Amino acid sequence: MQWTLVVPLKPLAQAKSRLSDTADDGLRPGLALAFAQDTVTAALACAAVRDVVVVTEDALAARELAAQGAAVIPDEPRGGLNAALAHAATEARTARRAGAVAALNADLPALRPRELARVLESAGAFPRAFLADAAGTGTTLLTAAPDRELRPLFGPDSRARHRASGAVELLVDAVDSVRQDVDTGEDLRAALALGVGPHTAAAAARLLMAEQ
Questions:
Q1: d(CA 43, CA 117)
Q2: How far apart are alpha carbons 192 and 176 in whole angstroms?
Q3: CB proximity list for 144: less than 8 A, separation 6 or greater
Q4: Dmax over Cα atoms in the chain, in whole Å?
Q5: Whole-angstrom distance, CA of residue 64 vs CA of residue 171
Q6: Whether the predicted model's global pTM rises above the 0.90 cut
Q7: Under CATH, to which class is 3-211 assigned?
Q8: SS percent in the chain: helix, strand, coil, step 5
Q9: Which of 89, 130, 166, 201 has most Cβ atoms within 10 angstroms of its Cβ?
């Protein structure tokens, strides 16, 4: 099964506010973009991925991610994360003739294509499925079969909310790179320990230089 991944990204100036303990206002937008660039690069390198659709209102992010090969659509609903994802999934299926669709977080800088492929292969057995994040309360991936709506419920306690909605929780071993999203400084250190992509590595180096 081939998947279209929908990746949401806030305007960079508003992104990653919980990293304020680690990066100041001048560095956080660059980190958020770097996370998204490494996420999209890894996703496009995954054999199970047909294409990647980024939904964002940020002009810089749109330009940079389109240059990497992602399709970019505007967040027309402007009604928050879940509205943006539902809109993007609908657009992918109408304009791009996508079948199986998955929502993927934009902050997975350590993402490994083979690990993502294993998760998507497992998801293919279910109408809707999700993968919990490393913290155990959130969600990094939500999938929907070709004949099912995505019905995203991201946000606080999304693991419990997706489970309550009928989505099947995917219990796949050794896919830490697909679980490790980055919201806090501790998350960033965990991602760096896994091994991040080149954009995040460069942004993290700038962060270290700023701390000296």
A1: 9
A2: 12
A3: 89, 100, 101, 102, 127, 128, 150, 151
A4: 53
A5: 33
A6: yes
A7: alpha beta
A8: 45, 15, 40
A9: 130
